[in-house]
Amino acid sequence: MAGKQRFEFIDQFRGLIGVMMALGHSNYYFNAAWLSLDPLDPFFDNFGQFALRYMGYLCAPGFLMMNGAMMYNSYWRRVAGGESPGRARWDFIQRGLFLVAVQLVWVNASWGGFARLRLEHFGIIATIGTSMLLLAIMVRWRWQWRLAVAVVVSLVHPLLLRIPYDAKAWTHVPMQLFIDSGDFNKYPVLPWFALATLGSVMAHFWFEAWRDGAQRARRSLALGASLIVTAWGLRLWGGSYANIFPAGKFFEWSFFLEQKYPPSLSHQVWFAGAVIFMVGLFCLIGLRTRVLRPFAIVGRVPLFFYAVHIPLLAIFTRLLPDLYRKGAVLESFVGLAGLLAVMLPLAWWFGGVKRKSRNWFVRMI
């Protein structure tokens, strides 16, 4: 198995998508566009607003795939170090359940500045946790079998979306938990679990098969680009099976604005390719310069960064309500700059604490 230096490109990439996510959340709190924006069917009147929203599309696929990759790698490192397979798997089950609890108890309430507890909502962190629970069952499978699961789930999901259900009846809970998006859950487990599983497949190549850094970069770039081109083909010619919304004309805004809630098949292929391509790009840059190393400050403690930066934004805008959704693109970037000024030192500090601590709770974060 790989040494710790092989983690750098993963930590740096996770840091990038963490910063992009923070920009998206700063946008949510400071941008007046959200007063009328429907996240399930977004429309933008200028390129700046479009680009600000679109860059966030990489975040959820990135986190799910990186979570799957690091879970697979960590499991086999621990087993190789003498830990029993059952013990290693049990630790990941605990973490998956912990993530679900963090979503229900902390994250849901943090969006409103902890004004009330919101146990009735599932979300992205809980979906990541549930994906970990499912992946724990498969972590010892050969990569070919895990790839087959990811492909089959992705291909079947568009068919499951055709199941009719009453959004006001109890049936909305299982449907939105696993298949569709709605008020209960915007991140249904099945399609995002497929991306986490694909991440575990890529871990086989990133950490085991492609041992040379240049080879890892080159092949990741090629595979990622191939998937992106395939996704464009699905967007243009996949019809309603691959697309929830019409594609529009090639390279128009509507072409790029893939359906995310729930993700369409073309979205899955597109952003799986984008993640793999970006990891390859980070590998390539890392061979030549250390300019990306600051991103690892965030990437080493992604859950801490996520769980702390949201309530900071929420509480700040509650204390200064004149700033809440009164700005536009510029104000979103100013908000990000202020947020990072606070969060980077905190992430650096907690990264040091986590490296030294054996406390179960700290280790889970």
Can you characterise this structure?
Helix content is 69%, strand content 0%. It has 365 residues and is mostly helical. Helix 3 (59-80) packs antiparallel against helix 4, helix 3 crosses helix 8 and helix 4 (85-110) runs antiparallel to helix 5. The longest helix has 28 residues, at 329-356. The radius of gyration is 20 Å and the shape is globular.
Describe what is shown at a glance.
Helix content is 69%, strand content 0%.
Q: Key features?
A:
mainly alpha, 16 helices, 365 residues, disordered N terminus
Cα-atom Rg, whole angstroms? 20 Å
Structure summary, number of beta strands: 0
Q: Termini separation (Å)?
A: 24 Å
Summarize the main sheet: none
Overall morphology:
globular
Low-confidence region ranges = 1-6
- Whole-number average pLDDT? 93
N to C succession of SSEs:
HHHHHHHHHHHHHHHH
Classify the secondary structure makeup into a structural class.
Answer: mainly alpha
Count of runs of 4 or more consecutive helical residues: 16
What percent strand?
Answer: under 5%
Helix fraction, binned, reads: 55-70%
Walk me through the topology.
Layout: H1 8-30, H2 47-54, H3 59-80, H4 85-110, H5 124-138, H6 143-160, H7 172-178, H8 189-209, H9 213-237, H10 239-242, H11 253-256, H12 265-286, H13 295-299, H14 302-319, H15 329-356, H16 360-364
Helix pairs in contact: 1-3, 1-12, 1-14, 1-15, 3-4, 3-5, 3-8, 4-5, 4-14, 5-8, 6-8, 9-12, 14-15
